[in-house]
Amino acid sequence: MPRGGRAAGSVGMKSRERLAMLRTFLSPDRPVTVRYCLYQLASRGLYPSTAKNRYRSLKELCLTARIRGADHEWGLDDGCFMDNKRVVEDSGIGWDNLAHFQKPPSIHRYYRNRWQDQPKHRTEIWCEKDTVAVLIREVVAKWDAILRVSMGGFGRAFLVRAANELAQVTKPITILYMGDWDPKGENIEIAAREGNQKENNRRREGLKDILIAKHGWTRERWRKQVTWNRVAATENDFLTMDDKFKLPIKEARIDEETGEETKGDALAPAWKERYGELCLEVEAIEVLEVGEVAKRLDAAIQRYGVDLDAWRKSERKEAKEKKTGKSVRCP
After folding, report:
1. CB 161 within 8 A of CB 124
2. Which of 46, 95, 213, 305 is deepest in the core (most CB within 10 A)?
């Protein structure tokens, strides 16, 4: 039985008071962060402080309520929340044809949307951290791809936004993932894709769960329509690279000088059984060859996301439009 002796899935009195208060000021017309909510509740006496443990408590409460949904007695609307730490970078995909490029100061500035001629949806790049995004932005721009950058775990607001944008897509969807090959990095990817498969207030939904729960997708549709591939770092990278390029996993240990216990990664013991005491960060791949991460992503986009013949055909259409001054519409 959960803490406090309550039945699984029940809502305690304190949680009810906090959820009731949240509903008085939350609105989809003005999304806010969980930290903003903590400041509001603390100022109303519903939390004694804004310390880290209080933030974790409220974050868990809000996540569980958002999974229940706005129609539930103790649920909340996902649309009321925003994520100001994780970003989506979209440089634009150009125009459908010359007619949509209204009154151009110069026809040479016209850029045709290549993806309208593609059999697949725009390739998405999901990146665990910004330090890796820096290495690949040029390739992302080259292919007009979408780059979704996190700072560690992908928050629910981030995943809900992605699901809202992908829900109505009918073309095949390609998601290329880039993250560290370590205990936490592996878990972050799995959680982003399909949640943690736990129940009640420990449940976290991934992209697949949200598409199914909020947008009527089926597991079969996900299986057929979405291709998810990890580009870097991979298990093969870890197994083939020299150990001198790897880092030790973060295990709980005792500091020899202070005698104090250092908290480690809770996932480290299971990882250690599979791979030993080392792990590999994406940036380490660049040690052997500068630019390798970008080069690998470029190859993956061409392999999984882009039809090169259709891409070149779109380029020829653009050249024809610029030359003739007339639109060439997508068939």
Report:
1. no
2. 305
Phi-psi region of 5 (alpha: psi -120 to 50; beta: other; left: phi over 0): left
Say which residues have a Cβ less than 8 Å from residue 139's Cβ, sequence separation at least 6. Answer: 145, 294, 297, 298, 301
pLDDT surpassing 60 at residue 105: no
**Cβ(159)–Cβ(206) below 8 Å:** yes
> In sequence order, what DSSP letters do the residues of 159-222 get, joined into one string?
HHHHHHHHTT--S-EEEEEE--BSHHHHHHHHHHHH-----GGG----HHHHHHHHH---HHHH
Chain center to CA of 262? 29
Q: Please give the DSSP secondary-structure letter assigned to residue 301.
A: I
Residue spans of beta strands (DSSP E) within the chain: 87-89, 124-127, 146-149, 173-178, 226-232, 247-248, 253-254, 261-262, 278-279
Tens digit of each residue's pLDDT (9 = 90 or more) over 248-285: 887 655 555 555 555 668 888 999 999 999 999 898 88
For residue 322, what are the CA distances in angstroms to 69, 107, 249?
50, 6, 55
Look up residue 55 and give its two tokens: 């933030």
pLDDT of 104 higher than 60: no
Q: What is the pLDDT of the chain when averaged over all its residues?
A: 87
State the average pLDDT over residues 101-119. Answer: 76
**Residue 233: cis peptide before it, omega within 30 degrees of 0:** yes
| Tokens coding 253 | 């240990």
Report which residue type is found at 81: F
Task: Say whether 323 sits in a helix, a strand or coil.
Answer: helix
| Overall fold of domain 120-306 | Dna Topoisomerase Vi A Subunit; Chain: A, domain 2 (3.40.1360)
Asked if 161 contacts 321 with a C-beta cutoff of 8 angstroms, the reply is no
Per the model's pLDDT, the better-predicted residue between 239 and 2 turns out to be 239
Which letter, b or e, does each residue of 316-329 get, where b requires 16 or more Cβ atoms within 10 Å of its Cβ?
ebbeebeeeeebbe
Looking at the chain, the domain(s) classified CATH 3.40.1360 span 120-306
